[in-house]
Amino acid sequence: MPKIKTKRAAAKRFKKTGTGKFVHFKPCKSHLLTHKTRKRKRNLRKDKVASEAMERQIRRMLPN
Q: Between 61 and which of 7, 11, 16, 30 could a Cys-Cys bridge form, CB atoms 3.0 to 4.6 Å apart?
């Protein structure tokens, strides 16, 4: 059987942690920032751990 190719879009967006969980950046931080509060923008800086349902999809996209 041939090797399974990695989805490059997913590889750029998700990072695997040491414990095997997946981390990603929160959306909504690229534009239209003037009307968003300082607190909201600050909270968008942090990484977020993917949910279990999302994790199953990510594992399929990132076979490594």
A: 7
Number of compact structural domains in the chain: 1
- Which residues form the domain of 21? 8-61
Burial class (CB in 10 A: 0-12, 13-18, 19+), 8: exposed
pTM here? 0.78
The CATH number of the domain holding residue 51 is: 4.10.410.60
Please give the radius of gyration of the chain, using alpha carbons only, rounded to the nearest integer.
Answer: 15
Alpha-carbon span 54 to 64, nearest angstrom: 17
Provide the 8-state DSSP code for 21.
Answer: -
Which tens digits make up the pLDDT trace of 8-43? 999 999 999 999 999 999 999 999 999 999 999 999
